[in-house]
Amino acid sequence: MSMFKLFDIKSSVFVSQQSAAMVLRRFRRYNSGGLEELPFKNKDNLERECKEEVCNMEEAREVFENDEKTVGDEDQCLSNPCQNEGVCEDGIASYVCWCTSDFSGKNCEIEVAKQCSVNNGGCSHFCAMQSGHVVCQCAAGYTLGQDKKSYKKQLPSWAFYATMPTITEQQNEDKRIVGGNEASPGEIPWQVRRDAGRREGREHCFSMFSTKSHCEAILSTQSLHLGEHDLHKSEGTEKDHFVAEQIIHPHYNDQRSQYNHDIALLKLSAPVELSNQRRPICLGPKDFTETLLREASTSLVSGWGKLRFQGPEARKLQKLEVPYVERTRCKGSSREQITRFMFCAGYHSEPMDSCQGDSGGPHASNYKGTWFLTGIVSWGEDCAKEGKYGVYTRVSRYYPWISQTTGIRISS
Hints:
This protein has helices at 17-24, 46-52, 57-64, 67-71, 213-216, 286-295, 327-332, 399-406, and strands at residues 87-90, 95-98, 103-104, 110-111, 126-130, 133-137, 142-144, 151-153, 181-182, 192-195, 223-226, 239-248, 264-268, 299-303, 318-322, 324-325, 342-345, 362-367, 370-379, 390-394. The chain is an alpha+beta fold and 412 residues long. An 8-stranded antiparallel sheet has the order 9-15-14-18-19-20-17-16. Strand 1 (87-90) and strand 2 (95-98) form a beta hairpin. The longest helix has 10 residues, at 286-295. 31% of the residues are buried.
């Protein structure tokens, strides 16, 4: 018997194309789980294939499913997109610029020092960001200088207030407001005195742009005195004006609170004749005013109010520098409600404060030689009492109402 098995000569030495393909077929591979790359799974994910796993040609080819796309992601940093010494890090169809501390932006194109949030953008008055760049603006009566940052005065020189106070501590004969100094004539030219007649004695409600609602409730006459300094004599600088209309804030309700929304506007019967002793104070944009209020080292308050709690009133205009008080400390110092329309200023232990009769007076802050209205004297618990502060109306909160009522456009 033969030990060899003869093949059937009718059998073909070739196999079908389908059978041959089965031999060369590459079964789908998986990395982290048996179902990851089975045919019924979703299309391959770039995040998984080339970030969570080691990225190579095979992994990328599974994602793009196209040879040209697979090799087409060249180094995105070749064009040196990062400016100002920024370091470029290549990514998949993208890049990241790592900027130095002086620059920011996608391509490190924005100089940090030239943003409104840093030193007011270098502007002498107001700063605005437009297309990623600082644009300086000015208050009314001023125009930008050649450097587009500083300002020039458009009005006569007498229409502007001196940068520094003119009365020193040594020159002061006696302390006023409470713990303040006597102002020199014309030093605070936006100060206005208002008499309430003899209904309940004389009530001084002072205004420069606005006045206090709680003063309006007791007024029996409508007379304003501008250019005033010494109440006991005529100095030739005073001008009297009558009020044609008074507009109390619509949310003021003395039955609920005598001091919330404590602000009113007065329309005069005739325009004010400006001089060295009679000048307006500036209103800045809302964000600018809020920042100035918080960051100014001190602000100036003034008036003819009482020299101490339940004491005599001042004969000559007094002034006092007061610091802004952080809001948590402000609210914790009083048993009364401090609303978001108010703020505190003053000293915890020093006997210096505004007092009765100063209500309606200006809280003014200086920025690079220009004075801006940041608050209005409103109320307090006693005067200069330890642990207590003066409370002021936050003027910037009322810009929409002021604009709507007066027609004066104030940037927000």
